[in-house]
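Why should sequence recovery work at all? Because a backbone constrains its sequence more than one might expect. Tight turns favour small or flexible residues, buried strands favour hydrophobic ones, and helices have their own preferences. The token representation captures these environments compactly. In the example below, the structure is given first.
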């Protein structure tokens, strides 16, 4: 597929006069175009389900999740990966981003980094990939040499590989185990994939990380019970979560959290079962951190 055939590089027939529109007209057409994103993402949910189920299985077997990207794709990936430790108290090594051009490229474009296929292979090789790892190559066009090289190497070394693109039948998908190809249509600004394409990818990354962590037992009901209370705002959030999860008073939540060093999950189980901290911790280990299972086990 050449660049002329890529949906992400085509002109949008509805915005040919973009440079003549008023601000409110530009905003309205952007808003209308963004409606296509939700529809396009919905079509990929079956593929996304397969991906997430495999990721969960891999992580339960000691694997890791890697996002690989260049430019906007890499920056979106970093946003998602960097939120996993504070939201779900994961080890920073569990969900990682590999960025073309290295860490400096998160803040300023590194020219030609995305074309360096050798660097893609080298950067993923440094992670000592195993069969329990998952590598997701993110590229709106589906043609980025850096990202393609990384997923090819990962697949050869047994990892589960996924392409996340905005073009059907994209090049990178020919080298992965599973493809997620979100066709959002041409951008209002031709080729500017930081718009609809990036929005769709952010939505999908949200789904991947959130659904994965739910299935790993890091959520109780719809509460972030593994939140890392690392600042005053999150300390207060931890108290609110305990209150909502147990219907206790503020003072009770504060008291039990002081006992658990502000770990929310054991605090909820303690209040639900009247068990002591050590017993709750041991039980949570037995049930792989699943709050409901721990409550049931200690209540039986």
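From this structural description, the recovered sequence reads:
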């Amino acid at each position: 597929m050449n660049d002329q055939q890529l949906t992400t590089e085509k002109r949008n027939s509805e915005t040919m006069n973009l440079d003549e529109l008023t601000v409110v007209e530009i905003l309205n057409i952007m808003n209308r175009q963004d409606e296509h994103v939700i529809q396009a993402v919905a079509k990929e949910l079956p593929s996304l389900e397969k991906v997430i189920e495999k990721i969960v299985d891999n992580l339960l077997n000691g694997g890791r999740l890697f996002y690989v990207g260049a430019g906007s794709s890499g920056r979106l990936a970093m946003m998602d990966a960097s939120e996993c430790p504070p939201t779900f108290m994961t080890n920073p090594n569990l969900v990682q981003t590999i960025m073309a051009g290295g860490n400096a490229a998160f803040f300023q474009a590194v020219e030609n980094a995305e074309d360096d296929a050798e660097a893609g292979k080298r950067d993923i090789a440094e992670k000592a990939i195993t069969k329990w790892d998952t590598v997701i190559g993110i590229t709106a066009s589906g043609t980025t040499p850096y990202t393609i090289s990384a997923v090819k190497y990962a697949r050869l070394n047994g990892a589960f590989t996924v392409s996340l693109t905005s073009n059907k039948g994209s090049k990178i998908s020919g080298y992965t185990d599973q493809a997620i190809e979100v066709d959002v249509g041409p951008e209002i600004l031709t080729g500017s994939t930081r718009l609809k394409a990036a929005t769709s990818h952010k939505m999908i990354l949200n789904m991947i990380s959130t659904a994965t962590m739910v299935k790993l037992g890091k959520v109780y009901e719809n509460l972030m019970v593994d939140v890392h209370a690392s600042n005053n705002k999150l300390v207060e959030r931890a108290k609110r979560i305990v209150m909502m999860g147990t219907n206790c008073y503020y003072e009770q939540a504060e008291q039990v959290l002081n006992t658990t060093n502000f770990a929310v999950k054991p605090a909820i189980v303690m209040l639900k079962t009247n068990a002591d901290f050590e017993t709750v911790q041991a039980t949570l280990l037995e049930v792989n951190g699943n709050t409901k299972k721990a409550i049931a086990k200690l209540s039986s």
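A few observations help interpret the result. DSSP finds eleven helices and five strands in the chain.
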